Amino acid sequence: MIASPVGIDTMVMVKCRHQCHNASMPVQITIRNVPDEVRAELAARAALEGKSMQEYLRGELVRLAARPSRQDWLRKVRDRKRAADTRIPPELILEQRDADRR
User: Fold this and answer.
1) CATH class of 34-101
2) pTM (2 decimals)?
């Protein structure tokens, strides 16, 4: 077994520690040109929940990021539809809907 040159392992460890440290650091996001009425609505919603605007918006961003994008959601629906390989005629859908209303 050949030993690695002195310093290579240290460089790798320093880089790993730097990346791991940066991964756990919060990131600041600035949004410019927010209309006054939007800011006022967000401030009101935050106040109703007893949160600061920062806490409220952070929670909303986390919630938004946890959901799939519209494109991803549509792709998954289309994939499942293709995999099922079935088609229901619109007339049957309307007929069933109307039957439920009687």
Assistant:
1) mainly alpha
2) 0.55
